Amino acid sequence: MLNSYLDVGIQSRINRIISPKDNRTVMLAIDHPYFQGPTTGLHDMSKTIKMLMPYCDCLMTTRGAVRHNISADVLGSKPIMLRVTGGNSVLFEELSDERITVTIKEAIRMDAAGVAVSVFIGSPNQQRTILNLTDMINEAEEYGIPVLAVTAVGKTMARDLRYLALASRICQDAGARIIKTYYCDEFDKLVKACAPTPVVVAGGKHSSAPEALEMAYKSVQAGAVGVDMGRNIFQDDNPIGMIKAVRAVVHDNMTPKEAMDIYQSCAGEACKLE
Ligand code: R5P
Description:
Elements: H1 8-17, E1 25-30, H2 33-36, H3 45-52, E2 58-61, H4 63-68, E3 80-83, E4 85-86, E5 99-100, H5 104-109, E6 114-119, H6 126-142, E7 147-151, H7 161-174, E8 178-181, H8 187-194, E9 199-202, H9 209-221, E10 226-229, H10 231-234, H11 239-252, H12 256-265
Parallel strand pairs: 1-2, 1-10, 2-3, 3-6, 6-7, 7-8, 8-9, 9-10
Antiparallel strand pairs: 4-5
Helix pairs in contact: 7-8, 9-11, 9-12, 11-12
Bound molecules: ribose-5-phosphate.
């Protein structure tokens, strides 16, 4: 397609986040302290990022991490998906009361390839968070920055097709360029409901390497463009083995069993992150 038909800046940045070669991505989610403070695997966030950044396609993280936890020698080596909403903590039962916390100018100054906004559909703050999304889209698109919408589920929301497809489709309709959601049964229906907007899947709580790889495999086979995975990588006993195995599932269509061979082959040099 000729460039003149494209929204060039947006597409160029999306190409940095999702490989145009295979339309897939392994995003590494390291944004957890924004609402839960000290997090297992991220107590030395600089070390975690330095160890895992070479293996991801894009790092999803926060302003604080970009400022303080990405060493100068690797800064700029991978695109950043900058989280730009927050305002709550795990100390409060209701997590949905978020606001935009980072301006689009700051995101541009930090060379963000995209910005991420959480929406809490069905929560008491549903409208506020959808408007956070649309406000950020209205601003970011002026500068050619794609917005990724995170369908946050809080502590109580169901993770079934009905809920997740509803939340994801609302994000697409709002104008999100990438949607991040959770895997569920009949996931292909969610992907179709949001097409052609790319969908990435969050990892969720740390489970086990085979389970997380199975989830990643089912997601991409159902049409997701990849994962935006955090705890199942950096909280694993073998984080490098895990991210390499996830890459194999996402980019090479390896089965979880085949990918486990890659995981095991790195076990000797495994280094658990604190
Ligand atoms: C979700 O709202 C945040 O972006 C999370 O920090 C991220 O989704 C967590 O990734 P994971 O569930 O794979 O640890």
